[in-house]
Design brief:
Elements lengths: L1 H24 L2 E4 L6 E8 L3 E8 L2 E8 L3 E4 L11 H19 L3 H13 L7 H16 L7 H9 L33 H13 L5 H15 L13 H11 L5 H12 L6 H18 L3 H16 L6 H17 L3 H14 L11
Antiparallel strand pairs: 1-2, 1-5, 2-3, 3-4
Length: about 350
């Protein structure tokens, strides 16, 4: 009788414990992009994603799932989500949406999603922020509008090596040149609006060290055409050294400009992107600083080198070269040559090439 009483008491307790365990184990974290859901016991929000205690094959282990990989999480037994989970999923969804649109080639809608992610509170220095910034840069490059994202491209170049994950954008080409750390498709050429946007990003995200501060200074001086800084330091890294040389093409001293021009053009093995940057800034500096018609014409010829590179040169650099060449040829009295180049500009991007929009 006593044995039956013990069984009658114990079995319901064991059964209830088992059911409770099963109910907990059945809670799932649903992932995106076709990944299988994870059975989870506990979850919590962190800056990088969801920290989850995952249950699999009788084992329990901790795992961090990035926010842009989380589609949803089943609520707990009380029907609630832990603090910060819903907000994190909301931000991650915007970044995932932008990434998905970019991967299928829809740059316009991708940019809108990435902009919305920052509006929703995604921080530029977070993992989500790095994906969104890279997405904005890729979207602008795809649209031929690299000048719009000078600030974002600079932030990408400042990220620690390996943080920009190419697999997030499998359709995209490599953004950063490994030698210089520069985003090769986004040269420092901008109108007033794009320059203001770049400076706003610089104010929003402080430079992480002296090298980053110098890089930002050099990029700003290139955009302005204001020449090299008075002091730049010694033992510069490859990217800062190249940018400093480019600023010297805007130096007031003609001997310094000429010396730098010859040195840069002598690099016969320079990649195409670097040759395009060199030719553009050499041409622009000569045209801006020289009054001799022959030297100014040499500046135009530097710009024509950029134009001749066609699709291998960044579109923004080709358009800037065309505009400046057209303007200078007219000033030199070469109206026929100016008209020929203007027709190329109009054919490439009619909306931006109307005569009243030319500098």
């Amino acid at each position: 009788m006593r044995r039956r009483s013990i069984l009658a008491t114990t079995v319901p307790i064991v059964l209830a414990a088992s059911l409770a365990s099963l109910a907990t184990a059945d809670r799932q974290l649903h992932r995106r992009d076709g990944a299988a859901p994870l059975v989870v016991e506990r979850v919590s929000a962190s800056s990088g994603g969801v920290r989850a205690t995952v249950v699999a094959e009788g084992l329990r282990f901790e795992r961090l799932v990035p926010w842009d990989r989380v589609a949803s999480i089943d609520p707990d037994e009380a029907g609630r989500l832990e603090a910060g989970i819903a907000r994190g999923i909301e931000k991650g969804t915007l970044v995932w949406r932008g990434r998905s649109r970019m991967n299928r080639g829809d740059a316009v809608l991708a940019r809108a999603a990435f902009d919305s992610a920052f509006d929703a509170g995604v921080l530029p220095g977070s993992e989500l922020g790095s994906i969104a910034i890279e997405g904005l840069v890729r979207a602008a490059i795809a649209a031929g509008d690299g000048s719009r994202v000078l600030g974002e491209a600079t932030l990408i170049s400042e990220l620690p090596a390996g943080l920009v994950e190419p697999s997030r954008f499998p359709r995209g080409d490599r953004l950063i040149d490994p030698e210089t750390g520069l985003v090769t498709s986004v040269p420092p050429v901008a109108d007033d609006d794009d320059r203001s946007r770049m400076l706003e990003w610089f104010r929003r995200v402080p430079a992480r060290d002296a090298n980053a501060s110098l890089r930002r200074l050099l990029l700003e001086r290139l955009v302005n055409g204001s020449g090299p800084p008075e002091e730049s330091g010694a033992n510069l890294a490859g990217g800062e050294r190249f940018l400093l040389r480019l600023t010297e093409l805007d130096a007031e001293d003609p001997a310094r400009r000429e010396r730098t021009r010859r040195t840069l053009l002598a690099a016969a093995d320079a990649p195409v992107w670097k040759a395009a940057w060199i030719r553009f800034f050499a041409g622009r500096g000569t045209i801006a600083r020289e009054t001799d018609p022959e030297l100014r014409m040499r500046g135009v010829l530097d710009l024509i080198h950029v134009i001749a590179l066609e699709s291998t040169a960044p579109p923004v650099l080709r358009r800037a070269s065309l505009r400046l060449a057209v303007q200078t040829l007219r000033e030199l009295g070469r109206s026929e040559s100016a008209a020929t180049l203007e027709s190329i500009l109009i054919a490439e991007r009619a909306d931006d090439a109307l005569p009243e929009n030319l500098p």
